[in-house]
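Reply to dn_fold:

You asked what the input looked like. This is it:
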Amino acid sequence: MILPIIAYGDPVLRKIGIDIDQNYLELSQLILDMKETMNNALGVGLAAPQIGLAIRLFIIDTSPFAADEDLEDNEQEFLSNFKKIFINAKIIKEEGDEWAFSEGCLSIPDIREDVFRKEKITIEYLDENFVKHIDVIDGIAARVVQHEYDHIEGILFTDKISSLKKRLIKKKLENITKGNITTDYRMKFPTLKRK
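and this is what came back:
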């Protein structure tokens, strides 16, 4: 089932997600719904807060990046197969030089900004079968994981841009919060309190 994606301004996007266990209600169906929602919106990642759940769950599918002809063949192949589910993830280490990449977010449509992140991470997580993994990930895949990981920490990519850029996109962010935006996928906008 395709779920609506929660828009910028909703408080759930600012909550730190809680850990879940195997008994989380209909987890397998939730993961399937998240995949369908992400694919429908042409995303490369989706975190549970983006569908209204403040839990530590996100999914990644970097295969759309594999079409980038500027990448080496081995990186294209890696990205085409990098499809993972991260439950109760914890980034243990971030290392290497920071590099800029133009990031966007399904919860913040039509806004892209350069964000600086470390090039390599070590992350501990559980997969959908609750098997523990510790992976070292670098490059574009690491960036996508860092972006989705931020979601379960209540952080958005717009928090990582300069104050000048924040001022420049302020009106666009306000329009998203008010629902004054059109997307090719379903969104749920914050309920604004009337004065």
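The two ends are 36 Å apart (CA to CA).
Hope that clears it up.
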